[in-house]
Amino acid sequence: TVMDSTGPVLTVPASVSLGTADTSAPVTFSTSAVDLVNGAIVPETTPPSGFTFPLGTSTVTATATDAAGNTSTKTFNVTVYDSTGTRLTTPGGTVETTTERDARLGW
């Protein structure tokens, strides 16, 4: 009799980042798992792919369990950031940045 005592090999993203002009955004991602005995297994994630994440960094937990009850768990971060530019009104007009980098101004 062969005993299955090894958990599935779980693959998750290193991290996921998404810019938004809102205070939250739905984020999709992919995870997968393969077990030596059972083959492909669909992992469960909390929160799930497609969840609307708030601005900031959130942790996602992925879990895969094979038919023998062996479980593998991994986590990764989802970061939702404000992608709108910063607006600065000067005597010469309005300047708006369109990236996350610093804007240098002179007058």
Task: State the strand order across the main sheet.
Answer: 2-9-8-6
Query: Which percent range describes the beta-strand content?
Result: over 45%
What fraction, in percent, of the residue positions are helical?
under 10%
Which structural class is indicated by helix and strand composition? mainly beta
Main beta sheet: strand number and arrangement?
A: 4 strands, mixed
Distance between the termini: 80 Å
Any low-confidence stretches, pLDDT <50, length ≥5? none
**What's the number of helices?**
0
The topology string of helices and strands comes to EEEEEEEEEEE
Taken from the alpha-carbon principal axes, the silhouette is: rod-shaped
Structure commentary:
This protein is mainly β. The model has no long low-confidence stretch (mean pLDDT 89). The strands form 4 sheets. A 4-stranded mixed β-sheet has the order 2-9-8-6, with no helix packed on it. The chain is built from no helices and 11 strands. 0% of the residues lie in helices and 51% in strands.
Task: Summarize the topology.
Layout: E1 9-11, E2 15-20, E3 24-26, E4 32-35, E5 39-41, E6 44-46, E7 52-54, E8 56-65, E9 71-82, E10 87-90, E11 93-96
Structure in a nutshell:
This protein is mostly beta strands and 107 residues long. The protein contains no helices and 11 strands.
Key features of this structure:
single chain; 107 residues; mainly beta; 4-stranded mixed β-sheet; 3-stranded antiparallel β-sheet; 11 strands; 0% helix; rod-shaped
